[in-house]
Amino acid sequence: MQISFSLQGKVALVTGGNGGIGRSIALGYKAMGATVIATGRNPDKNAAVAQELGHGHEVISLDVRDEGAVDQAVAAIAERHGRFDILVNNAGIARRTDILDMETADWHAVIDTHLNGGFYCAKAASKAMVNAGNGGKIINIGSMYSILGPPNVTNYAAAKAGLLGLTRGLAVELAVHNIQVNALLPGWHKTDINRDLLDGPLGEEIRHKTPARRLGTADDLAGGAIFLASDAAEFVTGTMLIVDGGYSIMDRQWKD
Ligand code: NDP
After folding, report:
1. Domain count, the chain
2. Ligand 1, pocket-test mutation among 23, 41, 60, most atoms within 8 A of CB
3. What pLDDT is stored for residue 256 in this prediction?
4. What confidence category does residue 173 fall into, taking pLDDT thresholds of 50, 70 and 90?
């Protein structure tokens, strides 16, 4: 029996790869042998991760809400490298507001980034994968809020639940091209998206509802993302992998 978690020779695009979870996945893929293309918008973060990724890898400035720019970037990557194997739809934002006060702009901003951006990237990547003829992997970064009911982020929950539908639809359609599509669902991992919350009292509250008794880190997602991108996951498609230290299956808080 042969099982391979290696990503040697694979070309991987990680959106939002210049920080947080995307950066950890990008560095994890590099460690497993992939050629990594990370994207982001912030020039300072882009420069920092370019330094970490080093020679042979790329960081490109890309806004996932811009369909034309996504199409161009993906086509250029496939052209430059002669293949396109892995897409991680990771770019994301949060706009936290009670539904009674939620501005339509905050709804659109979140849906545009996660769901529309995810669709643009998945469509472009699918075409590149089918053209290259080597199969491929698409990993959509959902959230435990793809399945739970969170307060103050209805826009985010709707976008992340939508990503599960995108995952299943793509998995069914693309299986014939040997492309597997799965969702990776993080729990609470301290990054720029939630640092303000987790550094406050909520951090301790969350920790007390997490069986692992700690908050997640960005690096906690790298292992699952490597598995789902590897040949070892060839028969895994249309499903979701929750990485949350047990948060979503806990029904009460533990006491110190
Ligand atoms: P970060 O804020 O650290 O990272 C978000 C990344 O997305 C950054 O690289 C940012 O780059 C990029 N980004 C945001 N908007 C765009 C855009 N329009 N186009 C391109 N890139 C964009 O947060 P996380 O690392 O935590 O988030 C990564 C993913 O994980 C998100 O999808 C998030 O929803 C998800 N997630 C995170 C959880 C957590 O606890 N941290 C829990 C559940 C899910 P730049 O700053 O340059 O724009």
Report:
1. 1
2. 41
3. 73
4. very high
192 domain residue, yes or no: yes
What is the domain-level CATH number for residue 177? Answer: 3.40.50.720
Who has greater pLDDT, 255 or 77? 77
d(CA 186, CA 144): 6
**Total count of residues recorded for the chain:** 256
Is residue 2 one of the residues assigned to a domain? no
**Cβ-based neighbours of 230, under 8 Å, separated by 6 or more:** 4, 5, 6, 7, 32
Residues in the ligand 1 pocket, defined by CB under 6 Å: 15-16, 18-22, 39-42, 45, 62-65, 90-93, 113, 141, 143, 186, 188-189, 191-194, 218
What distances in angstroms separate CA 54 from CA 33, 38, 89, 196, 225, one per listed residue? 13, 12, 22, 31, 21
At residue 21, the 3 state secondary structure works out as: helix
Tell whether pTM > 0.90: yes
Burial category of 32 from C-beta neighbours within 10 Å (exposed 0-12, middle 13-18, buried 19 and up)? buried
Confirm whether 254 is domain-assigned.
no
Domain residues for the domain of 232 are: 11-249
pLDDT band at 88 (very low <50, low <70, confident <90, very high): very high
What are the residue numbers of the active site? Answer: 156
CA distances from residue 251 to 31, 141, 241, 247, 248 in whole angstroms, order as listed: 37, 24, 20, 9, 8
